[in-house]
Amino acid sequence: MAYHILLVDDAPELRRMVGELLEGAGYAVTLAADCAQARAAWARQRPDAALLDVMLPDGDGFALLGELRRDGGDVPVLFLSARDEDEARLQGLGLGADDYITKPFLPQELLLRLGAVLRRVYGGPAREVLRLGDTEVHWGPGTVRRADGTEATLTAKEYALLKKLAANRGNIVTIDALCEALWEGPMVGYENTLMVHIRRLREKIEADPSHPKYLLTVRGLGYRLAREERP
Fold this sequence. Notes:
The strands form four sheets. A five-stranded parallel β-sheet has the order 2-1-3-6-7, with helices on both faces. It has helices at 12-24, 35-44, 61-70, 86-94, 107-122, 156-167, 175-182, 191-205, and strands spanning 4-8, 28-32, 49-53, 55-56, 59-60, 77-81, 99-102, 129-132, 135-138, 143-145, 151-153, 172-174, 215-218, 222-225. Helices cover 40% and strands 23% of the residues. A hairpin with a 2-residue loop joins strand 4 (55-56) and strand 5 (59-60). It is built from eight helices and 14 strands. It is α/β, with parallel strands linked by helices and 231 residues long.
């Protein structure tokens, strides 16, 4: 699953060039030309990292970073700026940015520095995220991030249950197999408890838990996690 990067820069040609560079490297990219577009994109879907220009038409990247941080955004942020003076660099890093890259920069340098930040923050080269439509399950912290920006935390049983289903995504996982993933020892008597965990998990990952779209019941057999939708 690709990392989602928010790129905010008012220069159309640079925005296009960097966007294509990131997409070519396997990232999912959202482009924004100013602070207003960046706020709207952030509200729609929290990215995994943001690349911010400092000088923007309706504000500056330093102030925008402060807004995102106050909004609960702890995702990594890298500045891309033509301002190479030490004062600007120190200001950006002092506000909590993870890196500060001066324009012009080598494309490979940007990819290497972005990759290094992502590995440091997320702990590996691949993002451990399960996408269910507009909902994201972040395995590391065990949280569910919904489209409206709200989050829910998975219990240990919900986490184990969803992990088992995700490992077999698109295929039926029997009741016995799910019970074995949640409890050691004999499976007798656990079916009703499993149903309770299924219901509570649906309340966290489904827009309409009464009419699930992703965590599906296969009557008489078990459950199935629907495959990822393709555009």
